[in-house]
């Protein structure tokens, strides 16, 4: 899996088995997941056509699942917990009916899932969303246009995804954390000029950490003058053992560790990825090797 933003659209690329409650949704094999921001005065008469135009403009064809929102894409929250990454945009209409009224959730697993697990994960994400809204005092269970996409990639490893499973617990925790954070950004209580990235850390107790490039306590984590535009790598987990490695997780199992990888901290590679946001990991490695030769 890899993801990137292009103007008002989030693109998540990979080789997914996915389930979607969104426009022209269902269950199927797709290469792209989309969350696209439309203007606040956008007409709702042709949502499928809107997504088709976005996909065509990106050269994707029709092999995708997509969602629409009026929430600005810079209010996006991305939450990563081991092999699970959750993407959330959230807006709730005011009492006078103004403003966006959609909560979109895309939950991706780096490990394959059965179709029943994909559907169960939709239930888990929805349950966590309701709990999150109640937690912050919102007397609603969602909005009329909420949608969820769940996706797995790779060899099937999960037959179930309920809240008692490892994957379900991760998705539930990410949505419970992410919905309030996404709402705070949309409502202006937290100001960000770019999407927000959260990592679940078990260091000194389980907690979520938001990474921001300003005043990073770990800079430089690799070398002086490194570029930190992609501190939390959009290629994660790349599974390329020439760049990173699998290590034992503190709660059992394995987690991808890319602490020794400098690929997306090198200026030439960062600039190349900004010019070509859909570039694959292999393409970036070839580009770096060419520059070094």
3D architecture notes:
This protein has helices at 47-57, 115-135, 166-186, 267-275, 281-292, and strands at 2-6, 9-20, 26-37, 64-69, 77-81, 84-90, 103-109, 112-113, 147-153, 156-158, 196-201, 207-211, 245-248, 254-257. With 293 residues, it is an alpha/beta fold. The chain folds into 2 domains: 2-212, L-amino peptidase D-ALA esterase/amidase (4-Layer Sandwich); 219-293, no CATH class. The strands form 3 sheets. Strands 1, 2, 3, 4, 5, 6, 7, 9, 11 and 12 form a 10-stranded mixed β-sheet that branches. A hairpin with a 5-residue loop joins strand 11 and strand 12 (207-211). Helix 2 crosses helix 3 (166-186) and helix 4 (267-275) packs across helix 5. The longest helix is centred in the middle third of the chain and has 21 residues, at 115-135. It is globular.
Summarize the model shown:
With 293 residues, the chain is of the alpha/beta class.
Order of helices and strands: EEEHEEEEEHEEHEEEEHH
By DSSP, the count of extended strands is 14
Number of domains: 2
* Separation of the first and last Cα atoms: 29 Å
> Which structural class is indicated by helix and strand composition?
alpha/beta
CA gyration radius, whole angstroms: 19 Å
CATH fold naming of the largest domain: L-amino peptidase D-ALA esterase/amidase
Helix content: 25-40%
CATH architecture title of the largest domain: 4-Layer Sandwich
Average pLDDT number: 90
Q: Main sheet, how many strands, which sense, barrel?
A: 10 strands, mixed
Q: Can you count the helices?
A: 5
Contiguous low-pLDDT stretches (5 residues minimum) are none
- Quick one: overall form? globular
Output the CATH class name of the largest domain: Alpha Beta
Please report which band the strand proportion falls in: under 5%, 5-15%, 15-25%, 25-35%, 35-45% or over 45%: 25-35%
């Amino acid at each position: 899996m890899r993801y990137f933003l292009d103007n008002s659209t989030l693109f998540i690329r990979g080789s997914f088995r996915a389930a979607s409650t969104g426009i022209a949704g269902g269950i199927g094999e797709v290469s792209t997941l989309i969350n696209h921001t439309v203007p606040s005065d956008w007409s709702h008469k042709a949502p499928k056509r809107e997504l088709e135009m976005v996909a065509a403009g990106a050269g994707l064809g029709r092999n995708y699942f997509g969602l629409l929102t009026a929430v600005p894409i810079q209010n996006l929250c991305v939450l990563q917990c081991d092999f699970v990454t959750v993407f959330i945009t959230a807006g709730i209409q005011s009492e006078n009916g103004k403003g966006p009224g959609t909560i979109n959730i895309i939950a991706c697993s780096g490990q394959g899932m059965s179709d029943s697990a994909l559907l169960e994960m939709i239930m888990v994400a929805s349950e966590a969303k309701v709990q999150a809204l109640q937690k912050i005092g919102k007397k609603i269970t969602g909005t009329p246009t909420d949608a969820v996409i769940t996706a797995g990639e790779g060899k099937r490893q999960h037959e179930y995804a309920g809240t008692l499973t490892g994957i379900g617990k991760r998705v539930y925790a990410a949505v419970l954390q992410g919905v309030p954070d996404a709402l705070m950004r949309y409502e202006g209580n937290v100001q960000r000029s770019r999407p927000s990235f959260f990592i679940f850390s078990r260091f000194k107790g389980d907690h979520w950490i938001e990474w921001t490039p300003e005043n990073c306590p770990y800079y430089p984590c690799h070398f002086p003058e490194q570029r930190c535009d992609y501190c939390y790598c959009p290629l994660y987990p790349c599974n390329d053992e020439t760049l990173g490695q699998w290590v034992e997780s503190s709660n059992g199992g394995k987690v991808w560790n890319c602490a020794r990888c400098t690929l997306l901290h090198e200026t030439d590679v960062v600039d190349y990825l900004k010019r070509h946001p859909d570039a694959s990991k292999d393409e970036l490695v070839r580009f770096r090797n060419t520059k070094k030769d």
